[in-house]
Amino acid sequence: MAVRIRLSRIGATKQPAYRVVVMDSRSARDSRAIETLGHYNPRTEPVEFAVDAEKVKKWLAEGALPSDTVSRLLQNAGLLPKVARKTTTAPRAVSAK
Question: Which residue, of 27, 30, 36, 89, has the fewest CB within 10 Å?
Answer without folding.
Answer: 89
